[in-house]
Hints:
heterotrimer, A: 449 residues, alpha/beta, Ubiquitin-like (UB roll), 6-stranded mixed sheet, 4-stranded antiparallel sheet, 19% strand, globular, B: 401 residues, alpha+beta, 3-methyladenine DNA Glycosylase II, Chain A, domain 3, Alpha-Beta Plaits, 3 domains, two-stranded antiparallel ribbon, two-stranded antiparallel sheet, 16 helices, 35% helix, elongated, disordered C terminus
Amino acid sequence: MLKSFPxxxxxxxxxxxxxxxxxxxxxxxxxxxxxxxxxxxxxAVAEVVKGDNVLVGQLIAKPGGFVSAAIxxxxxxxxxxxxxxxxxxxxxxxxVTIRVDGDEWETSIDRSTTLxxxxxxxxxxxxxxxxxxAGIVGMGGAxxxxxxxxxxxxxxxxxxxxxxxxxxxxxLTSDHRVMLERTAETLVGVGLLARALxxxxxxxxxxxNKPDAIEALRRTVGDLVRFLPxxxxxxxxxxxxxxxxxxLVKAVTGRxxxxxxxxxxxxxxxxxxxxxxxxxxxxxxxxxxxxxxxxVTGKGIARPSNFLVRMGTPVSALIEAxxxxxxxxxxxxxxxxxxxxxxxNIDAPVTKxxxxxxxxxxxxxxxxxxTDCIKCGGCVTVCPMGLEPYLLARLAQKQRWDESEAGGxxxxxxxxxxxxxxxxxxxLLDWIRLGKAxxxxxxxxxxxx
Amino acid sequence: xxxLLYTVLTLCALGIVLAVVLYFVAQKFRVEEDPRxxxxxxxxxxxxxxxxxxPGCRGMAEALVKNDDxxxxxxxxxxxxxxxxxxxxxxxxxxxxxxxxxxVRCAGSCALRxxxxxxxxxxxxxxxxxxxxxEAATYAGETGCSFGCLGNGDCVAVxxxxxxxxxxxxxxxxxxxxxxxxxxxxxxxxxxxxIELRRKGPKSRRVFVSCVNxxxxxxxxxxxxxxxxxxxxxxxxxxxxxxxxxxxxxYIDPVKCKLCxxxxxxxxxxxxxxxxxxxxxxxxxxxxxxxxxxxxxxxxxxxxxSNPAxxxxxxxxxxxxxxxxxxxxxxxxxxxxxxxxxxxxMPATExxxxxxxTSAAEPSASTSTSVAETPTPTSATxxxxxxxxxxxETPTPTxxx
Amino acid sequence: MEHKxxxxxxxxxxxxxxxxGIMGDVLIALAPALVVSAWVFGAQxxxxxxxxxxxxxxxxxxxxxxxxxxxxTVGNLSAVVTGVLLAFNLPSSIPLWLVILGAFIAVGVGKxxxxxxxxxxxxxxxxxxxxxxxxxPVQMTSFPTATAAGAGMLxxxxxxxxxxxxxxxxxxxxxxxxxxxxxxxxxxxxAIGQHSGSLGEVAAIALILGGLYLLARRVITWHIxxxxxxxxxxxxxxxxxANPESYMSxxxxxxxxGALLGAFFMATDYSTSPMTRKGGIIFxxxxxxxxxxxxxxxxxxxxxxxAILIMNAVVPLIDKYVKPQxxxxxxRASSAASAKK
Lengths: 449, 401, 341
């Protein structure tokens, strides 16, 4: 009996059509646009001005606060502008635009592929400092600055590290490819994470639809057994949203993160496999977070691919490399189809949190007409947080925020299972998200006064 | 038979006993309340819209009765008449306020013209829940303008007076100023803060910047043909320093504005809109209005007798005058774009005679501001139109100078 | 911009499930019972069913178009389901004008007055049936005798349903054995439909088949049917165990009357049942209890319709107080306490 989270969940068709495509390096674009807010928290503050020459890996923006992350130039060339640029949703944000000129790297970066296996000797605080300096954020999509997550608040102590290799989103395969192709580096990164946190229980959760990744991880753990702390690979039953932090903690350890709290409350820290790889590169190769694996896929895409892409590359360049935007393209999603956001502007850049680009045809993308709720209770059944989506959506529509708060709207993880399952096509999550934002604002205002 | 009798008797007895109990309970638990609260509530409009800041008219009535100084309390729905009546009832000085009306500060019609372009072209199609709040939380909008109207009608949904409607062609809301009570619900509901409560203005005439775009001129212009591009021409041309420029966006102070309309002619994009003015003298220029295609109606003769609504409105001087114009901003904008030689078009003699004629025709209209005084249908006949049209061209202070 | 892209918040994929598909599944599940019923009672069954469905659809369409003035909703097939269920609750010998009246009450009063599908608090088909039962008791309780081969004995003298037979005999001081002799059929006969009754009640096996189909298609969950039938079985078993002479066996109760039809098709109606599974069990237990109470001590021989309608009224209360177990909330009190320390 495979482990999974016990409550709710759905089984959307996984459509992992790019799973077999080996990661290829995308050629450098002519210009890159690097947003200064690629993470949760305060935007970074630009360190360069128009006309500056920059090298690959050079710091171009320093963290703008405690919860923030540094940003490094993904290319070498000349800074064309530091000004607001419309992002994927059309909302403008500060960004550094760089014209690419050659590929000159900072000399401190070790570009060799030699595996450095040390992970038990380093000082934990040195590891965290290197992570912070490299501007690493959670690469599963949440983009929470990693150094903050590795520094538990006073009084809290982590005893378990869970590495998220679940990749429960349909279509996406970037984590899968990382686990297959960069297995050893990722595992050393996991070791570094465990060292930084000082924990000895280490799990890697992988859904059972990636048997090759489970096999590769198990084999490499065996190969590197002399260097690594003991790591347990946990195959999980395929069920969305297994990759949600709270669901993963529950599935792997059986512990239930209390409502309103973070996994550290029950002694757990969850990190994505992509983050582990970035940590390995930052600590042992001095390489800041300037590139990542991005899946470009969709039923109309000629060559569903996984690309190693420099941050700031326009999404349109990735789609072009995968065979171009199909004639009938109706929607381009940044991220997976369950939690990703449809892009209004495909020239928007790849950022630290871009795990994939899914292109859907117009027919596939169109939502069907909303009809009246038939009270089937499907949304209640599938909600992994045990909420009542139909009720929360109605309360948000009527702007009844007190009742929304009592109904636990802030617990919603926005996984979209309710909207997915609704036979009447009520856009439940659209409304619930509104309620969550509004109630969050009310709670913050209450705390401040 | 006896069963029936007993049943009836029992029920009667029960009824009497309970009635006595209820009577004493009602006496015992009676809540003493100032009877004037009921009276004041009766005067208030009863819309329970909350525009006064109190939960419903009852709350407002209580506040009016309790507070000795009621100058801070105002019912925008009932307006001056209601407040005066309440003041008389309670023997307190009723506050006076300038009547206000909601204006939509976005004129970027998304309606497609013959050549497939639009004043403000849609670049994407939003397919989420039909709510501006939902859309604004995720996206900048369907068009290139991240400030403009989203067109899902949150303002329409909150309006308790049916005073705001969505124009499906343009994707913009339109305010019926006769129904609008300036309660301010739509102002709060709009996530883009496009709707503003503005002084209704003398004879409902207003001049305002119908745009809230703070982008640089080029960016704004690219997204929308009628955007304010922050060029500052209006600021220069205004003789009353009523126009200020903040982050590439002009704003006309309704208090300082003397309605001279120079800025309207000066604005290169047509972002400044005038309402409530009569159509300017026809200019022979070809129609260049960007919004012309939005309405099939010909803007050539707004006061044509063939259009009864317009006639009615035009012939109801000063009060109703703008309703037709207000609900047809398209026609109005056309007039804005077409009428260039504004100042020359007003000979003083014509103005004077027109004033005489008007006062003769409708003596009460020039003094009263009450909407209730609708003229008889006979006054709305065609022959009166030219004179009344002239009436509107009363010189404003600038023109005198 | 050459491509006009659609933008929307997540999610971007959806199940193939639709209201129409769900209703279609219910209709498929009802088909075997209809076939058996037609075989037992003859062609009149089809006439009643077709008329009932047609009236329900027409009334819904008219009301939606002219009174509610909303988009047409008959395409979701819910009116068809209501029509079939209403027919299943009528005797096949019912005058056809009563079918029309019942359909009007079911759709017009039971459903559309509340705004249509999803907003009605009471099961529309049962509203129609109970109205007819109270207003026209004679027509509604005159059942044709079942004939094994459906040889059309519709004009024959009316037969008593097993439940009314049992009630009559047991009330009159007779014993269970008397009932069995009078009825003249075995439990097996009950299961395959050799007794008189409403259209949809006769074929226990066909109904179970349909119910299993709904379970397999995940249109319904096991909670409500199991709670209803389980409660009925346990309750009647206790009484039967105490005094098998004057109480019918649990199997008799499960196979007769509207027990199976109600448990699988009527009580599970989405709009009128609780949203949570826990709530569904409470709802089902309530139906089971009330049904047996009415059957044994009430004025009517059968209590399923009343039981469901009574519990329908309780559903909003159940939904208010029976909430799903929220993730991480059981721990909240202790974590809040530890946070305070």
